[in-house]
Amino acid sequence: MAKKKDRTDELIDEMLKDRDPEEILGESGLLKELTKRFVERALEGELTDHLGYEKCSVDGKNTGNSRNGKSSKSLISSNGQMEIEVPRDRNGDFDPQLVKKRQRRLPGFDEKVIFLYAQGMTTREIQEYLFELYGVEVSPTLISNVTDAVLEDVVAWQSRPLDAVYPVVFLDAIHLKIRNSGRVETRAVYLALGITLEGNKDLLGLWVGESEGAKFWLNILTELESRGVRDILIACIDGLKGFPESIESVFPQTQIQLCIVHMIRNSLRYVSWKERKAVARDLRTIYTAATVEAAEKALDTFSDTWGERFPIIPKIWRSNWENIIPFFSYPGPIRKVIYTTNAVESINAGLKKVTKKRGAFPSPDSVRKILYLAIQRISKKWTRPIHNWPAALNYFTIVFGDRVPV
């Protein structure tokens, strides 16, 4: 038995009958006209509620207030720009809620702009997109004002309380071009990715600095402490000079571990594409060694094989050996957590995706907005704990004892 259509379906069918897509969705289409009428009817309803009586009703006599015509207002919506008639009262104290005084955009438009901004689109691209799709002309100032609302979320996110203990924290930085007093400067954006006791990834914050330096990292670590972090078991870092000392001054018990991926990447910078595969294969024998002694022997072998052609590579590894070798004292599950920097790499890749179109950012706040939105999107994919986390956590409790809460 066919389901009987309700009155709403019948009305919709009647409105859509014999109409082409342009008549429904176009600049002067049905959808836009319905939105306009809905808004105007809703505003009329708000005024009736405010006055306490229906239009033309005798109940309005001697109430001290009455309807006083309408004023035109231009609104931007996700369906384009439209003119609406806003009813007024004689006393001038009617304060509509659906479209507030001085409001120029309907709900949904700001969210659309922020979504486009979060995809990495530039202000000019957003302008062109909105004009082509909706016939709406918006200024760069409007787009900036809409996206500035994100800064409140950034401040709240950046100051939120953190866990007391993180088994592993990856400390890294990317570099972006930012305008400053008419000049374009390369600035470091610092990232701290924590692994929680549950094995989940948590980006603790992002900071825009003057340049990458141990002193700025010290400020970041102090901030993490003020937000509730009491202990970091292992901190994975790059080879920045003075970085270990900065960490030790705030978290003296933290084990410093040089990021293996950074070591590999830095080493391969000096190798041609033709030889990279062979060099990477021989480097692998170093960081996959079972013991420190085996790793040292592998490094000697690598030096014998490649040292004459690339003398800088063995030098890099030997000069950082003190902060590499802790890796070999850990059992397999902990090594995997430390070495597997997929989370860090995925963040960096996601951030580069939304920043690559920009020659230079106009301000540090513009960087914070776009990166925060990108991070929120990236973190939605972090739905599961790190692979084999229970085994790693078990070893953490053995290696670090009472420092791991139970």
Strand order in the sheet with the most strands: 5-4-3-6-7
Give start-end ranges of low-pLDDT stretches: none
Strand segment tally = 7
- Specify the helix fraction band: 40-55%
Report the end-to-end length measured between terminal Cα atoms.
Answer: 61 Å
Shape: elongated
Query: What percentage of amino acids are in beta strands?
Result: 15-25%
Average pLDDT level:
82
Main sheet overview: 5 strands, mixed
What integer value in Å does the Rg equal? 30 Å
Decide which structural class fits the backbone: alpha/beta
Number of domains: 2
**SSE pattern, N- to C-terminal:** HHHEEHHHHEEEHEHEHHHHHHHH
Topology:
Blueprint: H1 7-16, H2 21-25, H3 30-51, E1 67-77, E2 80-89, H4 109-118, H5 123-134, H6 140-148, H7 150-158, E3 165-180, E4 183-195, E5 201-208, H8 214-226, E6 231-237, H9 243-250, E7 255-258, H10 260-268, H11 273-287, H12 292-306, H13 312-319, H14 332-339, H15 342-355, H16 364-379, H17 389-400
Parallel strand pairs: 3-6, 6-7
Antiparallel strand pairs: 1-2, 3-4, 4-5
Helix pairs in contact: 8-9, 10-13, 11-12, 14-17, 15-16
